[in-house]
Amino acid sequence: MFRHNGGNFLLRRKQTSAPRVTDMSYQVTIEPSGHRFTVGGDESVLDAALRHGLVIPYSCRNGTCLTCMGKVVEGEIGYPGGEPPDCLDETAVAVGQALFCQARPTSDLVIEVREVRDAGDLAPRRTRCRVAGMERLSRDVMRLYLKLPDAERLAFLPGQYIDILLRDGRRRSFSLANAPHDDELLELHVRHIEGGEFSEQVFFNMEEKALLRMEGPYGQFYLREDDDRPILMMAGSTGIAPLKSILDHLVHIGNRRAVHLYWGVRERQDLYLDGELRALAEGCSWLTYTPCLSEPRAEDAWEGRIGLVHNMLLHDHPELGSHAVYMSGPPAMIAAAQRDFHRHGVDPDHLHQDAFEFAADSRPDLTAGTQGSTTTD
Ligand SMILES: Cc1cc2nc3c(=O)[nH]c(=O)nc-3n(C[C@H](O)[C@H](O)[C@H](O)COP(=O)(O)OP(=O)(O)OC[C@H]3O[C@@H](n4cnc5c(N)ncnc54)[C@H](O)[C@@H]3O)c2cc1C
Ligand code: FES
Question: Into how many domains does the chain fold?
């Protein structure tokens, strides 16, 4: 067990076994922010911090990359297996450094570590990834699961996106639909664009195990957790992807803020997560879910809301001044909503948006000879 108290780090005795899984929970205080959270059972400090919506830097989550390193200022920790991970050398251990993705508290702790409070705190990085799964969600949306190399995880804030890098360096942006704590696989919802370079590849040429290159995380569209305003969410089409990430994160941290989600698509078959979202809303008293169709077909037998999604939202919430608004999806929807939401008093500091613009370089570049972004092996 490794103990640090009042600046004097003491190696009391080396553990020869993993910390016991117990019902004990310990209080951890982060310095300098003063944020506090509870670590229970056999949780690592990092997992518990993420569960409380507090992001500290991390990458591999398996004790090999040092990204999550910070200092134990007070208290005791242990590691699974008894010894600190190999990459943490003795000098670092002697001055109280710990790897929080592995460390388990065995007492209350005060730790010193940088906290990620803003998307700018997370440096985007470039990595390879493998297509670990593909699922056709609707006629024109494919769910892609991406797996990073074994020793890597992507730290991101719920709502952010990544760029898929094409062979000639051009890129295509896609929002992450999984929540940050659930990062074994990254989840994308790719809409098929007629003639679209990447999405046509996904729909017609891609197979599981294909290799891609990606860069991220990016974006200022992420959940502001310090804010306690009720939340209005509005998605058009695959704009639901980053909102799903935010919703899964809110569930994970035991949210109590009221959230009303509107999801607008053309026809009933485009509501590709409808069942999942209805079930989520039934299980969460704080969540209301309103799907809207703009052009339902007769065979849809739709008895729900019909019209443009931002009009539906304004019909129900004509006063926006006290809400935080998060909206993502087609640029035309975002532009119309922006204009009308301002008329209804939305506070610009609490209006967050991701317009799914297509790539500026997406016109076919015949000189580049690009065949696509994947390789298989
Ligand atoms: C921050 C951000 C997040 C995004 N997240 C997602 C996401 O989660 N899911 C998703 O499906 N898309 C998302 N997009 C949009 C996506 O990046 C683009 O649609 C992308 O260009 C599609 O790549 P492609 O290679 O298939 O088509 P491209 O080769 O880029 O496009 C071919 C042609 O199709 C047209 N086109 C391209 N995209 C669109 C579009 N969206 N609407 C209408 N016409 C288009 C253009 O005229 C273009 O010349 C996001 C965009 C941004 C900026
Ligand atoms: S050592 Fe990589 S995240 Fe902890």
Answer: 3
> How do residues 318-330 score in pLDDT, each as one tens digit?
999 999 999 999 9
Does 165 sit in the ligand 1 pocket, CB within 6 Å? no
pTM above 0.90, yes or no: no
Complete DSSP assignment for 316-337:
H----TT-EEEEEE-HHHHHHH
What residue owns the CA closest to ligand 1's atom 24? 196
Cα dihedral across residues 88, 89, 92, 94: positive or negative: positive
Choose one of 45, 47, 50, 65 to mutate for the ligand 2 pocket test, by most ligand atoms within 8 angstroms of C-beta.
65
Pocket test for ligand 2, best of 45, 77, 101 (most atoms within 8 A of CB): 101
pLDDT tens-place string over residues 227-261: 899 999 999 999 999 999 999 999 999 999 999 99
Ligand nearest to the CA of 56: 2
> If you average pLDDT over residues 316-345, what whole number do you get?
95
| Residues 187/242, Cβ–Cβ less than 8 Å | no
Confidence of residue 59 (pLDDT cuts 50, 70, 90): low
Contact 61 CB / ligand 2 (< 6 Å): yes
pLDDT tens, 156-178? 999 999 999 998 878 899 999 99
Residues 210 and 258 in one domain: no
Give the C-alpha separation, 192 to 94, whole Å. 54
Interval between CA 359 and ligand 1 midpoint (Å): 6
> Which CATH number belongs to the domain containing residue 67 in this structure?
3.10.20.30
Q: Which CATH number does the domain housing residue 141 bear? A: 2.40.30.10
Ligand having the closest approach to the CA of 99: 2
Spatial separation of the C-alpha atoms in residues 363 and 128, rounded to whole Å: 25
